[in-house]
Amino acid sequence: MSTVAEQEINLKDYRVYACLECGRCTAVCPISRSHGFSPRWTISHTIAGNSRSHIPDESVWMCLTCKRCEEVCPTAVSYSALNRALRIVYSDRMPAQTCTHGGVFEQIQNLMLNEELTQDRLGWVTDKLKVQKNVGETLFFTGCSPFFAAYFGEDYSKELIGSLRGAVKLMNKIGIEPALLENERCCGHDLLLRGDRENFIKVAHQVAEQIRTSGAKRVVFTCPECLVTLRDDYAEVGETLDVELLHISQVLESELENVSFKADKRIVSYQDPCRLGRYSQVYEPPRKAIGRVPSLKLEEMRNNRERSVCCGVAAWVGCDAGTRQMQRQRLEEAAETGAGTLLTACPKCFIHLNCALQDGAEEKKPKLQIRDSWEYLASRLA
Hints:
Elements: H1 4-8, H2 24-28, H3 32-35, H4 39-47, H5 51-54, H6 59-62, H7 68-72, H8 79-90, H9 104-111, E1 132-133, E2 138-141, H10 145-152, H11 154-173, E3 179-180, H12 189-193, H13 197-214, E4 218-221, H14 224-236, E5 244-247, H15 248-252, E6 267-270, H16 284-290, E7 297-298, H17 321-336, E8 341-344, H18 347-358, E9 369-372, H19 373-379
Parallel strand pairs: 1-3, 2-4, 4-5, 6-7, 6-8, 8-9
Helix pairs in contact: 10-11, 11-18, 11-19, 17-18
């Protein structure tokens, strides 16, 4: 007799039967110690047919879907994809997950479902930025950073909006005048990660139609979550985009050779976002772009590239004392490099790590500044 999970999910697609129960996944899971969470336990119970009794607890929402476990799995079990699939299957049978910040970002996602919604998404664009409206060969998909900036206020908006402006400045420097969508819809990443596949499909259709109407031949992102969602998740719901999808660092990687930057003698470290790193294997392009600044010294944290540790919160679900502890440890690891600045390449990495940095007793905080990579690079343009 098949289990509930097997009736609605083909477990073979995720290679769960190849699991050796070696425990390596749990050993490297960044929340296993603070939350008692275990990828191996989830797989074992799913295989054993205990899905119905196992899934209604909150463990399915604890997973950060960061893929750190998959980097050490000897049999290539697709645990993160399995976890996301389980969320979809059981989303209407479980207690409501706790969304941080009063669920405001969940409500923004829901607003995007209104086909009649009209927005002005270009309020952050200054006169010095060369952009096109709605139509162009290179489309810059800006994501939710303007919403994040408006909600979190001045302490965060400088970097979040600065990231968008910085990306445009850098593209302008290499001869690109990107198109921007005045009524850009959210990509739907968080809807899908919360298990709401039905509404994710609606948003995916809207965004895909906007891109087709723009006439774009390539779409550029500063947000790794947007990149992965449009590249991987849209295809799974029938929206295959016939355009090139690139992270801003991939666009800049070879084009910055003839761009001059002001020297900076500071020491920096760099946080690899999960979606840009383990999901997309984009490790060197951001480092090469950062390395264009003369005299700048990049010091790597112990856990970098494939071993990088997640910023701690996925889809605004699960922010608690355990994830805060994980974030603080990550900040301490950055400070141990001798860096005074930690560069990020994801708006959520910036928000979550900056929030952890500001929290707690002053004497216990690492002496560290967190900046967005593209805002920083644009600020060093000669």
